[in-house]
Amino acid sequence: MNKNQILEILKNLLRIRMTELKISVEYSKQKMRCPVHLSIGQEAIAAPLKVLLTKKDIVVSGHRAHAHYIGKGCNLEKFIFELYLKEKGFSRGKAGSMHLFDKKNGFYGSSPIVANSIPLGVGMGYYNKINKIDNVVLIFFGDGATEEGVFYESLNFAAIHNLRVLFICENNFYSVYSNLKFRQPHNRKISEISKSLGIYSIKENGNDIRITTKTLSKALNFIKKNSKPILIEYSTFRFVEHCGPNKDDHLKYRNQSELNYWMKNDPIKIMYKFINNKDKSLLHKFKRNFNNELNSIFLKAEKLKYPKESVAYTNLYNEKS
Amino acid sequence: MRKVKFHQAINMALEYSLKRDKSMILYGLGVSDPKEIFETTINLQKKFGSQRVFDTPNSENALTGMGIGYGMMGGRVVMTHQRLDFSLLSLDQLINNAAKLFYTSDGKFSVPITIRLIVGRGWGQGPNHSQALQSLFAHIPGLKVVSPSNPNNAYHLLISSIFDNNPTIFIEHRWLHNQEGRIDKIYKPKKIKSFEKISTGRDLTIVCNSLMTIESIKANKILKKNKIKCDIINLLSINPLNLNVVIKSVKKTGKLIVCDIDHGHISISSEIISSVASYRKNIFKKKPIKISMPNYPTPTGPSLTKNFYPNFINIIKSSEKILNRNIKIPKNKLEEIKLHDIPFKNYTGPF
């Protein structure tokens, strides 16, 4: 990986964080009238996608999908306009934050139903296999999704048919407020579920951009070389509430030592620790420019027109033959 | 064309479609097993290979999602369940994904998949092997729900469903599999047909689908002998539901009997009656009648199902009521329903 690519990944890390922070600031104005599940704290897993994947590689995701959409280099304007549910959003206000799409850039959907986009990604992998297409499908989900039957069913099918699919579990230890220890057996890693099905599986730190870049890149090479699925379990942490723009730690469902540990391991903080001064100033410049870009997109989004009511009654069925 | 059985017509439609579209896959538990889904998938794996035609794990939900993902890439899909009841494990994928993705993506992703659901009846099928649930599927915006009643419309409707670019629930009654008939040649896939007129008459309108169309045809023979002429409308599609033909017919007859293969409460038959009742003026001369399964789970034993599944005798009795006259039923026809829980005389089960 060359210097520019590394820098691009670091910029992407900031791009995701800054966009999510901007959403959280603007959200209270009641102009984005749809639930948002922000990725703040979990950006390091998605930031390398833009550099490591081509547009033809496919990503699907769950409810916490903003990072994956931005990380893959999808259309930022159409995304923000969609959060504002305006006519120029990618689905003209029919979708909002919980149903993201950008077909051109290989983002084939996200879903707010836990685990329900996992089999879609597997089907895309099966299509690629029998039509001899080399691209990889990445399927993002959280720790909660691994408790659903469809997770096991999907892994099983991908293993039987040797699909070029990368399963990525972002384990942030909480399903809304419920800790993993109430939901899964003690001392059993999520990656062991897939391992027992014969799928090569690893568990890694998801907050250090150096580690996520390296492991994602290795996994993609493994898939391309062996035509087999892989699962990576990344441990990470969300910094704001499950759904919405605010901190919610006054509810005390996560203990203080846990919070301290993860705040120390903020992906942005880790990144600033290892980069040199030259890169720091480049990133500083990037931040200034991107901040202006964000401000103008959000201003534009506020001013845009809503779709006409009649738009609600379009595209129920595809009647083209 | 020569006479074929219903299950052969399904097989021919699948073969035609697999040949026509190289992207099409066909799968489901048992597709390539020795019984080959009641012979409907016979020889297809041999002809098209195990990547396109394949047996699956028992993972109804993931495999439905898999088909949806495959469809989003532009491929066509047919998934088969040997009983409709098994497909209930896949309702999340059908309702939350298949039915919604074209809409939420604002037309960017289509879901060209067909789900074959086989409905059982009689011979101990009981509460988990006999559900038709057509109204449940028809309730979901974005799904299409169709059902054939004979080899010819099965052949054409299955091809139309496969080449339709939307998720289509194809409800296939197990008791139709042995029906025999000629099939019309196909030149190219046509749009899904919404209904077929089975007979024409001024006295009474009968609306039916699937197996109840066969029962309506049986009833019609008796009615004809009694000089009663019926409009019989076989609904091939219940979602979308086009009721223009029903309204036109009831305007003429003023009398409507709706025959449902499913439970009658909160159902497509109730929907049809309420839609005709809310037409801008009252066109009923008599109160409409609904024939359906009762609001109970299906019992298993033969003594309990005697009056559970509706048949042509129910249609005759309802016709007597709505026409306010006696109808003579030939003795041999009454004999026929003594074997109420099997599809034909030599049937020995189990499915």
How is this structure best described in words?
The complex is a heterodimer of chains A (321) and B (351). Chain A has 321 residues and is of the alpha/beta class. Chain A contains 11 helices and 8 strands. Chain A has helices at residues 3-27, 49-52, 66-71, 76-83, 118-130, 149-160, 190-195, 209-226, 256-264, 267-274, 277-303; strands at residues 58-61, 107-110, 137-142, 165-171, 174-175, 178-179, 200-205, 230-235. In chain A, strand 5 and strand 6 form a beta hairpin. Chain B is α/β, with parallel strands linked by helices. Chain B folds into 2 domains: 2-183, Thiamin diphosphate (ThDP)-binding fold, Pyr/PP domains (Rossmann fold), CATH 3.40.50.970; 195-339, Rossmann fold (3-Layer(aba) Sandwich). In chain B, the strands form 3 sheets. Chain B has a 7-stranded mixed sheet, with helices on both faces. In chain B, strands 9-11-10-13-14 form a 5-stranded mixed sheet, with helices on both faces. Chain B is globular, with a radius of gyration of 20 Å. At the A-B interface, helix 5 and helix 6 of A face helix 4, helix 5 and helix 6 of B.
